[in-house]
Amino acid sequence: MNQLSNGDAVDESFLVADKQLRANRQGNLYLHLELRDKTGSVGARLWNASEGLARTFDPGDYLRVKGKTQVFQGALQLILSHIEVVDPTKIEPEDYLPQSTQNVARLTARLREILLSISNPHLRALVECFLIDEEFVRKFTTAPAGIKNHHAYHAGLLEHVVTILTIADRIVDLYPELDRDLLLTGIFLHDIGKVSELSYDRAFAYSDEGQLVGHLVMGVEMLRDKVEQSADLTGEPFPNELLLRLKHMIVSHHGTHEFGSPKLPMTLEAIALHYLDNLDAKIHTFSREIRDDPCRESSWTPFQQNLGRRLFKGIAQSNGLPDESMEP
Amino acid sequence: MNQLSNGDAVDESFLVADKQLRANRQGNLYLHLELRDKTGSVGARLWNASEGLARTFDPGDYLRVKGKTQVFQGALQLILSHIEVVDPTKIEPEDYLPQSTQNVARLTARLREILLSISNPHLRALVECFLIDEEFVRKFTTAPAGIKNHHAYHAGLLEHVVTILTIADRIVDLYPELDRDLLLTGIFLHDIGKVSELSYDRAFAYSDEGQLVGHLVMGVEMLRDKVEQSADLTGEPFPNELLLRLKHMIVSHHGTHEFGSPKLPMTLEAIALHYLDNLDAKIHTFSREIRDDPCRESSWTPFQQNLGRRLFKGIAQSNGLPDESMEP
Amino acid sequence: MNQLSNGDAVDESFLVADKQLRANRQGNLYLHLELRDKTGSVGARLWNASEGLARTFDPGDYLRVKGKTQVFQGALQLILSHIEVVDPTKIEPEDYLPQSTQNVARLTARLREILLSISNPHLRALVECFLIDEEFVRKFTTAPAGIKNHHAYHAGLLEHVVTILTIADRIVDLYPELDRDLLLTGIFLHDIGKVSELSYDRAFAYSDEGQLVGHLVMGVEMLRDKVEQSADLTGEPFPNELLLRLKHMIVSHHGTHEFGSPKLPMTLEAIALHYLDNLDAKIHTFSREIRDDPCRESSWTPFQQNLGRRLFKGIAQSNGLPDESMEP
Amino acid sequence: MNQLSNGDAVDESFLVADKQLRANRQGNLYLHLELRDKTGSVGARLWNASEGLARTFDPGDYLRVKGKTQVFQGALQLILSHIEVVDPTKIEPEDYLPQSTQNVARLTARLREILLSISNPHLRALVECFLIDEEFVRKFTTAPAGIKNHHAYHAGLLEHVVTILTIADRIVDLYPELDRDLLLTGIFLHDIGKVSELSYDRAFAYSDEGQLVGHLVMGVEMLRDKVEQSADLTGEPFPNELLLRLKHMIVSHHGTHEFGSPKLPMTLEAIALHYLDNLDAKIHTFSREIRDDPCRESSWTPFQQNLGRRLFKGIAQSNGLPDESMEP
Amino acid sequence: MNQLSNGDAVDESFLVADKQLRANRQGNLYLHLELRDKTGSVGARLWNASEGLARTFDPGDYLRVKGKTQVFQGALQLILSHIEVVDPTKIEPEDYLPQSTQNVARLTARLREILLSISNPHLRALVECFLIDEEFVRKFTTAPAGIKNHHAYHAGLLEHVVTILTIADRIVDLYPELDRDLLLTGIFLHDIGKVSELSYDRAFAYSDEGQLVGHLVMGVEMLRDKVEQSADLTGEPFPNELLLRLKHMIVSHHGTHEFGSPKLPMTLEAIALHYLDNLDAKIHTFSREIRDDPCRESSWTPFQQNLGRRLFKGIAQSNGLPDESMEP
Amino acid sequence: MNQLSNGDAVDESFLVADKQLRANRQGNLYLHLELRDKTGSVGARLWNASEGLARTFDPGDYLRVKGKTQVFQGALQLILSHIEVVDPTKIEPEDYLPQSTQNVARLTARLREILLSISNPHLRALVECFLIDEEFVRKFTTAPAGIKNHHAYHAGLLEHVVTILTIADRIVDLYPELDRDLLLTGIFLHDIGKVSELSYDRAFAYSDEGQLVGHLVMGVEMLRDKVEQSADLTGEPFPNELLLRLKHMIVSHHGTHEFGSPKLPMTLEAIALHYLDNLDAKIHTFSREIRDDPCRESSWTPFQQNLGRRLFKGIAQSNGLPDESMEP
């Protein structure tokens, strides 16, 4: 979908992300759709639609559409001439949602490799309890790290966690006070709540539990269940201080109350986790916004609402007319 | 008006809240109106209008209109075929502005009943001075509590004040340190400035004085006038400390500088007023947003700008596709 | 202890809250103690102490002391002439920590009465699971609501919760949209984490878990355990939406991120809980500061760091010289 | 008093600003006083005092004291050998409170001169109503502009207002949109509430009304009274818009909610007033802190809590060791 | 351009500020342009345009256009019937960008006059080094003071600086502690970085350096270069303390970290500069918004995003219907 | 010095960091000194001092002192029996200021090694210009990174920069979009202003320039000088975009306006620098506070003003009495 340009003819299948039946000024009905594949989404219109046709499908279904592209109010849209519902059993849902560009199997193997290097027996047993839980691993290796922000694609969470684990593994010798096992375990666990905070089978969204309780608290609950399993496995109680330190890393990793942490980081591993998490998330976000900005003529991206700033892409080979849309 | 759905024929009278004469792409003139009755407002268009026709009425007048409804850009609008100015003397203005669903006479009786249970003679005389002022009572029992926020309808202020008085009356025995008479009087007075801060005879709006001075300061001025009357009535000077405490309750009831109070609550009755005021206002706002949200398919209301959050309505019986529009 | 005045002779037993051995300018050792009973605490000095004597007791032990009171730098202190360690088995610890002035048995009965009026069978079974847990009830009816802020005494938490339950019970009919059973259960549960966040057997303090994880997250964990018991009891799964709503009330009851809630209140019962909690806490704090301020000559309390303001006590019968220490 | 240095013998009369009877470690009583004259204040101790002696005077009385100065904990204090109560009728109270260094009569004349240059008849009549009110003029020409901040001395308010009026008078021609009469009247009125917000006959303090209601609201009330007089005087009603603009200037002159204004400046004259007020106040504060800093060896004043910064006094001729006490 | 009203025929030349080629619903191409002259800008459409025509010009070029005006969605636009590229050598660029209404030569003379009244030889030499730099003077007398905020027109920076210099010159005698020479020099230099932070030859914009480094730091760099020249000129080193004070005035003049100053004002001249700068900028902004608001029927301007408020224009002679669009 | 405990006899040389001559209650003079060696500082008193003795030395001089230690108000102090001025030529100043525990020569070698791996010829030439400047290298390898915060010891800046360079070097391959040469150069340069912002020859302090201008702006000025040299060296102009990106990294590295950056990070390398800088600084600060806390009986450090929190040291083997001094 990110290959389309103005005036292209289109004949492809898409996921229906949104559907509205509207009337134009003359009172004629038309369909306004949002269509999506794994590279992005686009608005689409089918003129002269009927209520009957509109009832044949819902958001979440797949449509094969024919039509052509057109620029409207500065954005590309599809003007459809034909639509047809597609049998979902013939569809690979993952073709319709954004994916990590990295090899998920290799990332998963790397995750196991780093986690199995943990030597503290309690922490080692704990991470194993997670790794042998197939349902958990399926979700953890599929979930995005967010809906719109950094790593917002399938396996984005895995990619994010493996990167931070790799960084931690490489630099932990520089800080002898840091407990390597605790840091690695905390990095692995910090976002586990996201596997249920988000839903990502068809479209990416927050679950009701995600919005009402949030992945920090959900992560602590998941940790508790596995700690009990782990104690059964080792035959020894999980050390209380270790458990407190892990819970603390989960609830404090956003770093400030303002960003939703009920506690500020108060241990060495918690503060390290907070900055490593941010380092990877922000580099990822900056890279994506700079890379994906379609406008070649400006040295700057548009204003990024989430970041509160525009980003500098490098001095453009534009026609020399300065960009007028920015006032700090 | 909140009964209308797509394609309905309409033949009714409305208040004109806004009027614009515009030209379409072909240069033909049309009228763009905002029409209102007590259940809500709607946009309306009359194609092929003339300047002559447009001059026959202004915002604030009433029109009888014929036409039919249509969905445009996701919202309902009226396409008018005929308009006709209505003689305002044949109109009940209150049919065209939102009303409390409660019985205003009964609310007013309840207000008197609670206030006349005040035993401190100075405070009792003071509230009587307000209650015998017919012009004040007319305004106080008509005014909304706001333009857009909580209780934004005729008699909304009365409903709000009577509810808080009722709560205070029921719980004051739990806190022996609270002065019942002072608390009830302060609740009654805290928003009296709103009777002049807002205008609400035809549409709801802020008066110039409301915007430049605000209902906190205006309330103190109104209190001062009645305190003089009250002293004349009782033949005794109104006790200075009592007056200071009442003024303080008025100027501090927003609770923080950020919300426009020049002083923080520094007495027991002032802090109680602040939380009771907020309790009722927020429960009212949450209830209305949850009740009035027209979208049945989502568990959540849209993002509420004033509240900085979405509200949870309960898990919807939707088609299972999660809502994608939310990123915290 | 709050009966002491300058020059009194003292012969009583106290809890040692703090102990320091210091040297004066001449190099002579003396003991600096903080002594406490249920009415308050006082600094004390024993001149010419030896290291041997200092080793005979620790903070948390009880001492019988003789001496007399003296004003030093504006505060009362004890100058000790004799100290003697007391056998702790002869001590009632509750005589040495602040207590609720209300009857704890009656409060507990009132708690049961209100909670057993809940009609939703799942919520009713849930609260019963808590009420039949004797260890929980013992802690819940003993814990303070805080260390320094409101209700900072034994059974303070119980007193706080029963008061809010009573208010909710009296006013819930004013708001038909509020779910009475959900609101009462949420009020009961909102601070349960405090029974382990704080330690209060000898002195009041935060536990390590309290500081690292906090009572909001701890409360969710406690709720989860009881929900499992409750489902076993009823033989039916606890409804998921009900559980989410309860967890949400616990995690959001501080109202804003700034005060440590990871989520803002997004349901009607959650916003009601937040304001009722604050209403009671602030009225309690204001009452205590005004009542306990020992200075009769000023109309104002000293500046309250936690509240960011001074409180008005009423115009004092002082000698007319205004207080100079206040600059807003 | 600001002439005293270490070891000086003292034999002078002072105002008693504070009095405390304390016991030392040996249980002997001593008096701890704060003594004041118009150049400043100093702590003083009289060893071996009796309760009888202490009862012979109160704060607000005057004492003749003998003793000598001594440096204690970095500050100068008086060690008294003799005290004696002074008959207050033989005292000029203004000798014991800080005074403007400018000629008050000349400042008052300048105030009248500028105000009487107002040409709008309503505003002219209004300011005359203030100027013929002798009690008001007495207070207005005596009051300090604050307790601790800028212009904290007798006639400080007058000095502040006359300076701003002079600036406005000199620059108003640069901004043709500014209404000179309105601006001058608003400057004159903006702080009139301070004549009752503060008490300054013996020591400087906030009155109860000042703390509970504040000089912004008090100023609006004072304005209303004079506007009625003024309308009687001119025989014409005071124009409503003019009154609103004046009230708005008073309530908005602190510029932001954070600094206690219930309204932001929304007129041209209100925004000009806000910046002129700040310009004079801040230049005054900076000048005083730089001039009064007694430490000659540092290029910097100590950290100013009110300003949130240290001030640069100019590179000192010190011994070259940089000041170590500053970490931003 | 600000003379145009609905239905006017137009035959004039404009600067092309933006150009987009779009397709309408029927797939026909049209040009969407933003055209500009020194009085403002307007949107324009040319129906049935070809790609070939669109390639004949770019933003920054000039077009002669024929067409007529039309109201679309509440704003005026041009419907073009004919366009023709204009030879830029026949154009006076300054006719197409907003200009100061004051005489630039006279402002420049006034600038020199005030600056040459500086008596400190180092500061005098320094300002002369700027004034003899023709390229600098050309830019300084052409640059706007901003893109959208105050003084956003050619020579706006000069107008702003000359006004503040004039104010400082008139009031400096009121504050004997202020160093007149230092204050005037600092006012002159505070915004010099803007001559390169902004680009203003064809349209107004931020330069890349302006966005990445900012005019505060750029101004310090420019100052350093001239200080070296100045020392060469006088044959004496520029005094270090004087240079620090000037740099400090530049980097601190925004007054707070929040507004981008890396240092708070810590000298008398720096704090004076900060308030004088704001006084002029805010009076200018308020005046412009009140003067330029086209809506005669409301007493209020629309909400000003930059100022966080609406401005009061004076009570309107409207039809009495209050304005409904405001909720604080 | 950090080896001292209560009652130790002392006979050593120290740097005098502060000197005050005071009088006690009996009017006898004594000296109050702050003494320092490289492990810390301590307060000291010499009773019965004379003015003559006090004049024989100043802060910045060295004293040999005899005396013994004593606990006063919870802190250790020295009671001196003898002092004697030491000939500074016989002193190694670095023995009296805190030092890095790492080998400075090895750190310097590591710095060169990493920087000389830069391949971009302009950046390579630029860093060489710094490395061949012996005066710069001497300062850069001596300066602390701060006065009180992280790395507040000689060579602390070098240690900090080498650590971040090492981390960047190890992880840059994980982010292909990051420009390694630019990132390494920016890390090297980000704090160069500190070599003149601080003074650290005898005691650590801010220079006047450091306080008035700050190390961000000073660093840009230093960069400019070296860029000119570098262009001379290579015979090619230094690329403008590269220079802008380096300046931007320096001015934005504090990350937010609140922490004194005039610009937010807007490039990939600037955001990476910001988080790497913080990661190292915060891990360093947490490690030091946890390691240096002398109190073995508490699981927690005291409240850290700079961090706004206490830090968790691990569950202590204390006597079980919880710490009472913490209220969140």
From TrEMBL, chains A, B, C, D, E, F:
InterPro entries according to UniProt: HD/PDEase_dom, HD_domain, HDIG_dom, NA-bd_OB-fold, NA-bd_OB_tRNA, YhaM_exoribonuc/phosphodiest
SMART domains: HDc (SM00471)
Any single biological process term in GO: rRNA 3'-end processing
Sample GO molecular function, one term: nucleic acid binding
Domain HD/PDEase: 153-291
Key words, A-Z: Hydrolase
Record bears the keyword Transmembrane helix: no
Name by which UniProt lists this protein: Putative domain HDIG-containing protein
Native source species: Singulisphaera acidiphila (strain ATCC BAA-1392 / DSM 18658 / VKM B-2454 / MOB10)
